[in-house]
Design brief:
Aspartate Aminotransferase, domain 1, Aspartate Aminotransferase, domain 2, three-stranded antiparallel sheet, about 40% helix, seven-stranded mixed sheet, single chain, 2 domains
Length: about 375
């Protein structure tokens, strides 16, 4: 394992006072990432033309290389930057050559970013099969039960935002590949916490934003599209830099760029791009398996503490990630006051509502959190007067 005390002191100094446990919402930036963003802002404020050509352009290629290694993509050309998970998945949804009566499978606990792009396809005669979640997420059994000869794609979150359920990507991916079904993964809650191998897991498309488990800026993320798949797709969203000869501005040639580059979405958020590499480097230095063991251990500890106090925990023990969610003992408005009470105690978590508007409290960890912070949370819960 890595030195957590040193990590907290050097990269996350806020942790000296603030027990921040809402990384599934938005994560604090590591200090090295903050410095890289500030350097980008400084470069853009002095000579942006020089900064763009001399620093930003090479940095974008270096970052794609780093991302490709992180997810074991076959080639960096399978990576393109995106503003968000939802922007990436919407672009994919509109680029697949659907036929009427095709269907796509996802579970009933997906975040809207991984539901709305598919639901919007009903206008084109594509059926969204929203299947029941089992133990908080999509399982292979439910995929098999609901798939048929017209199933074109399965979409799943690697880690569910609400329950913390960790999907069996390898099993679902293997099934999809055997049956020629596209396997699409929302990785925003998982990409900085657990090992993801797009080749061995047979992932065709992976999308993520940067602001959660990736410890980067909002408004920046990336999209992976398997090269052989990308070459069959014709995006409906066509940007100034997503065509083959885009530098010839006035040629107006709509020939898609090769590979994932056809999903380029205009000039990228350069400070956002510059935030990705240092955060990925930090994750790499700590070791993704070490982070996984640490945050899963914190989740298991949290579940034990909550269950012992009589709370109803919906995070599955045997498929847990870095998220722990339990039912609030209060109604929604009172739970809001509980969250505010915790914030006043310098403890940050969040409230979520299920489909029936029952209030839940979600605690989400990252690489530098400790058991002591969760103990603070439990003590502060006890001191709340409704």
């Amino acid at each position: 394992m890595y030195d957590i005390d040193n990590l907290r002191r050097t990269e996350f100094p806020h942790s000296a006072e603030l027990a921040y446990m809402n990384h599934a919402g938005i994560s604090p930036l590591p200090q090295r990432t903050k410095r890289a963003i500030q350097a980008a802002v400084d470069g853009l404020s002095v000579n942006p033309n020089d900064f763009f050509g001399r620093i930003a352009m090479p940095a974008m290629e270096t970052t794609k290389d780093l991302i490709a290694r992180h997810i074991n993509a076959a080639d960096p050309s399978e990576i393109v930057f995106s503003t968000s998970t939802s922007a990436a998945l919407n672009a994919i949804a509109q680029a697949i050559e659907w036929s009427e009566d095709d269907n796509i499978i996802f579970c009933d606990l997906e975040f809207p970013s991984n539901a709305y792009p598919w639901m919007s396809l009903t206008r084109d005669g594509v059926e969204s099969r929203r299947v029941p979640s089992i133990d908080g997420g999509l399982t292979l059994e439910e995929v098999v039960k609901h798939a048929d000869s017209r199933t074109r794609a399965v979409a799943v979150s690697a880690v569910q935002f609400f329950t913390g359920h960790r999907a069996d990507l390898a099993a679902i991916g293997a099934y999809c590949r055997r049956h020629n079904i596209l396997f699409i993964v929302d990785a925003i809650q998982a990409i900085g916490h657990m090992r993801i191998d797009v080749q061995s897991m047979n992932i065709d498309v992976l999308a993520t934003g940067g602001m959660k488990s990736l410890l980067s800026l909002p408004g920046m993320g990336f999209l992976y599209v398997r090269k052989s798949l990308a070459e069959t797709m014709e995006p409906r969203l066509i940007h100034g830099n997503s065509t083959e000869d885009y530098i010839h501005w006035l040629a107006y040639d709509l020939t898609p760029a090769p590979g994932a580059a056809r999903f380029s979405a205009g000039t990228p958020n350069l400070p956002g791009v510059m935030s990705l590499s240092p955060s990925l480097n930090l994750i790499g230095e700590l070791g993704i398996d070490n982070i996984d063991a640490h945050t899963t251990g914190l989740t298991n500890y949290a579940i034990e503490c909550l269950v012992s106090e009589g709370f109803r925990v919906i995070t599955p023990r045997d498929a847990a990630g870095p998220i722990t969610t339990f039912q609030s003992p209060y109604d929604s408005e009172t739970t809001d006051r509980l969250i505010q009470h915790l914030a006043e105690q310098r403890i940050v978590v969040c409230k979520h509502l299920d489909a029936g508007s029952t209030a839940f409290v979600r605690v989400s960890f990252h690489c530098y959190n400790t058991r002591n912070e969760f103990d603070r949370f439990m003590s502060a819960m006890e001191s709340f007067v409704s």
